Predict the 3D structure of the following.
Amino acid sequence: MSRNNLRGGLNPEPDTPKISILCLDITHFSQPIQFFICSGAVFVFFILYGYMQELIFTIDGFQPFGWYLTLVQFGFYSVFGLVETRIRNITSRSIPLQTYFLLALLTLGTMGFSNASLGYLNYPTQVIFKCCKLIPVLVGSILIQGKRYGPLDFSAAVLMCVGLTLFTLADSHVQPNFNTKGIFMISMALLCDAIIGNVQEKSMKNYGAPNSEVVLFSYSIGFLYLFIVMVATGDFTDGLQFFATNPKKLYGYALIFSLTGYLGIQIVLTLVRTCGAFAAVTVTTCRKAVTIIISFVFFSKPFTFQYLWSGLVVVLGIYLNLFSKKHPMSMQDLEVFIERCIRAIKLKIYSKRQGQRHYTANV
């Protein structure tokens, strides 16, 4: 490269995109160190997020106020998103408002039903349901985006369904206050999650919107939706009065809960950029397993070994899904594989029979 080219502003080595985590620049670190830093941060923030969520619902009388907690959480997320857009100097909107109206409704359904379900469900059961997000996402992406999936993806979904059913049956046997309302709520949360994931992916690809913009508009419009509904039903006044009984504790818990969730989402996105989606899903899946263990350790609840092996069936389904992303297999590939297996078995049987005949002839 000549000096004239350098003077003209041509850089032989383009600048590496800056990678930061909570304002800490980690660009100069190697990829393995970046992975361990991001993974450690994901574990810290999301484990604390799960702990705070379960801790809030252990407060006496809190069970009916899951939707008010969602309102407070959406308020905090809106403030965090506004601050982040100002820091990043994002002044224009990329995605149309009508798309955000839909995204806000789906975000409200996802987080609202998820929070409210804890008033009726065991926390580990809620986490196991969230682990099985692949099932509605798979159906939603086929219907909304017209995607096609291979036999490994469908096998993973079947394993998750079986494990989820067994885990829920175990929960219904050991929990005297088991309520099917919780199952309905977390199922609705997963349904909304399946749709929102596909709508977000499609919108962000088409319009190139930054994450902070999507967070700001989705949660602020969702806050307005929920506020109007809760004021109309009188639930807002009930929640406000309950939180007023101990505002420092309740709003303080809600702030920590919201902040850890928001920061955790940002770190997962950084992990996806630095190490890829496969590594990010692996880390978040391991985090959920640790969260379930912590839930049984710190919060007293009945335990049965059916929780363990049904959870392992779900984990097997998750990793079969991850394996299918790294080694995709079509239906034709499956047919070829089955034909090879049948041929190998037939050849083995034929060789065994020939060996027996040869032995008999010698005798």
The mean pLDDT is 76. The first strand starts at residue 20 and ends at 21. Residues 331-362 form the longest helix (32 residues).
